[in-house]
Amino acid sequence: MRRYCEHCEYPLKTCICAHINTVSTALDIVIIQHEKEALHAKNTARLVSLCIPSTRIILANDEASMKSFSEQCVPRHSVLVYPNEGSKPIENVDPKTRSEVKTLILIDGSWKQAFGLVKKNPWLSDLQALHFASAPPSNYAIRHTTLNNALSTLEATAYALQCLENIDVFGLYKAQSALQDMWQGPTSHRRQL
After folding, report:
1. Does some domain include residue 2?
2. Does pTM top 0.85 for this prediction?
3. CATH code where residue 45 lies
4. Which residues lie below 8 Å from residue 22, measured CB to CB, with a gap of 6+?
5. What integer pLDDT is reported at residue 141 of this predicted model?
6. What is the rounded distance in angstroms from the CA atom of residue 172 to the CA atom of residue 180?
């Protein structure tokens, strides 16, 4: 039977605890995670919560938690990282708006899953949406995607924090690199960067 680390929850052979550094942010980070994404051992939402312990991960199929969050969510102080017709580039958010943002919401899942989650939860469409106009390319190689502009949830969180707070997010990237270095899955699961 495979043994797991009690802290990072990865197998002991791939424990990344030694590579976790706390990232300090004034924002509340909420990740709405598609239930299928939660089953992936290499999902990066877990890494975000290890580096930013106050992160809340809400499973999208947990109706009670989603309802509770929707009732607590204050549209004026919350932004959703999601590209839609009304979204604005995160790089162009003015200082006044940045100062009003208290909650950063991300969706963890494929583009198709994210689209379905927003459709199923129309209250998300009432939030100010932000998209990335000039995000750096992804360095996350242990996932399947053919999209060049797709970022891992960790990379999206890090970039959003850089844009909104201009803080040091090296700890997030370090955790993702450690996961990739320790990953023992087949090489066919790695993308060419």
Report:
1. no
2. yes
3. 3.40.1280
4. 51, 52, 53, 171
5. 65
6. 13
